[in-house]
Predict the 3D structure of the following.
Amino acid sequence: MHLPGERLCYNLSMLMIKFVPEQKMARFYEVHVQSTLLDSHAVVCTWGSIKNGYHRVRMIKTQSIDEAEKIAKRIIQKKTKKGYAEMGP
């Protein structure tokens, strides 16, 4: 949990979306690399529907930032191949 107004610091962060109107699909996928309290770093993935707000979260613990960034980049690459596009600023 973070304090109101506090900025979260991510080493690597990406929001991707996927729209397929003919299937009435509107999804998002977020990937973050962040430091943790007990482990070195973790990759945190959040995904779900843009329409109804339903989402899920997964955390992958790693021993180093290099390992976390490698995992995050691999996830981003897989999602891009499946039709997700990076959300602009």
